[in-house]
Automatic annotation (TrEMBL):
Record key words, sorted: Calcium, Signal
Source taxon at top rank: Eukaryota
Gene Ontology molecular function: calcium ion binding
Range of residues in the leader sequence: 1-24
Protein known as: Sarcoplasmic calcium-binding protein-like
Organism name: Lingula anatina (Brachiopod)
Keyword Signal: yes
The gene coding this protein: LOC106161473
SUPFAM superfamilies: EF-hand
Ranges of residues in domain EF-hand: 163-198
Length: 208
């Protein structure tokens, strides 16, 4: 009759050890120097945060990340793309930005955003990151004619949905790695992942 409590204690010990090991691995591989003001990674994420924080209150909540972005998408994306786009952002908010294990979190500031992405660095070489689902969903929404390529016009619409006003042409050239005048899905994914998870290099993914 004493086996069940001992088994529960053993399982809890394993869970605590695994969580502690994962957190230690992330912070060891990605020390705080990576998010110092002025660092390329911090600058990129701050730029993205600012694009979404349209009311300039220093906080991102679901309305900023999902609702207001979808409202802009209704202007620049095709009507048949809105449901897919809304689903992509909603999943992103609940599985990534709002941090499911912290049920009380309804919004994030820039430091929260940095550490959320820091956590996302863990295990990226072992399996397809969940962030790639965002990349694919956004690309599909922006690909108006569904030709599996993003034209200059479609890319501009993507930029406008994300409040990018400067460096749109530079962004297109940056993402269009083979310079064939069309951004394919792999180029888009590569540039997006580089923007969010390359801690050393600058990026023009979201313009200048």
């Amino acid at each position: 009759m004493f086996l069940l409590p001992r088994l529960v204690w053993l399982l809890l010990s394993v869970i605590v050890y695994d969580v502690t090991r994962t957190y230690s691995s992330v912070t060891k591989n990605c020390p705080k120097e990576h998010v110092a003001v002025g660092h390329a990674w911090y600058t990129k994420l701050l730029h993205y945060f600012t694009l979404l924080d349209v009311d300039n209150d220093g906080i991102l909540d679901r309305r900023d990340y999902v609702d207001r972005t979808v409202e802009r998408a209704r202007i620049y994306f095709g009507a048949d793309k809105i449901n897919v786009f809304n689903e992509t952002l909603s999943k992103g908010w609940f599985t990534f930005w709002s941090v499911p294990e912290d049920k009380c979190r309804k919004n994030v500031d820039i430091e929260n955003a940095i550490w959320i992405h820091l956590r996302g660095l863990e295990g990226r070489e072992l399996e397809e990151p969940s962030s790639v689902l965002w990349d694919k969903g956004v690309f599909k929404a922006a690909d108006a004619d569904e030709d599996e390529g993003m034209s200059v016009k479609e890319h501009k619409a993507f930029c406008q949905v994300y409040n990018v006003r400067k460096g749109i042409n530079e962004s297109f050239s940056y993402i269009d790695e083979n310079q064939n005048g069309c951004i394919d899905q792999q180029e888009f994914i590569k540039a997006a992942e580089d923007f969010f998870y390359n801690v050393n290099n600058e990026s023009l993914f979201f313009g200048a």
